[in-house]
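Sanity check record (used in CI):
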Amino acid sequence: MSLLFQPIQFGTLNLSNKIIIAPMCQYSATSDAEVTFWHEQQWAKYALSGAGLTIVEATAVQAEGRISHADLGLWNDTQAEKMKLALNKIKAISPMPFAIQLAHAGRKASTDYPWTGKGQLHPQDTLGWQTVSASELAFNETDTAPHALTTHEIEKLIQDFADAAKRAVDVGFDLIELHAAHGYLLHQFLSPISNKRTDEYGGSFENRIRLTLEVFQAIKNAVPQDYPVGIRISATDWMDGVESWNVESSVELSKALEALGAVYIHVSSGGLDAKQNIDIHSCYQVPFAHAIKKAVNIPVIAVGLIEEPMQAEGVLQYEQADAIGIARGILYQPNWPWQAAAELGAKIAVSPQYLRCHPHGLKDLFTSF
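Expected output for NADH:flavin oxidoreductase/NADH oxidase:
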């Protein structure tokens, strides 16, 4: 029996299978960081795919925390109201749980659409703004140096994460994922490459993980008891010959997060330094998930070029992770879970409108929502 299509539980949230649609920025929000019809149709595709859970794209808790000027935000009630209207439409057509990833881009903010190739927009540009970080170190040599957050600004940041979490619950999301990966703000505090602070948020490992733990705790305090909160981390900076964030650091951070009540660890990697040297190949991040899985008792999600159903199944069969994150692959093949069910001999629940669409010979594949 396929492990990929067995149920899994993230805290109090039950999923029908172990396929997780990982967060993917769509760069399609309004200038006020509000949802558009693009998000509605994209979320609807996810909802009808048969996956166990969708995690909505990185959503900024502050205006300056957006990766680009076209990113979603959840720092005010108007954004929340419009997001709630959109999510209600999606929940009307599918029972799939939806989560949201709360984020702050830090020094990697203020970018243009990625397909323009322009990179970061400077504060004097019409659509640009001053970025912030742990220290005044830019990601690229051509970027504007970020402003190093003061302790007072850090306090406000923590509160803004908590306020966004409250809004996420009210919107109707079933789970919150905290984004501490890919070189964005929390990762910038975690890594000694980008964090050169000398106060309680810099220097030692305990100091560098402090902000991530404080933000996570603030979110837990802001949401109802037993409401599930997970986290995404970069397991390594992929930097050779320098002191950096690595798998050993990630293992210790994951233990601390488990103690605070994290319901899962979502394991990615990289994004912190432009000089990273990533060995990209099929399932290249799975060993990081495996290392963390061996150290914690909560579920671990593996992600990263897990493209074929048999690859996903193998990761679970060999106990390298507990669930599988699919991202770009499901953009290319929106019904990837259907394909996986067919190849692995499993059943998958779909909307009843689709019950007659399967190829001849697969009549036992689909069940109805």
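The chain has a mean pLDDT of 96. If this sentence no longer matches the regenerated tokens, the check is flagged for review.
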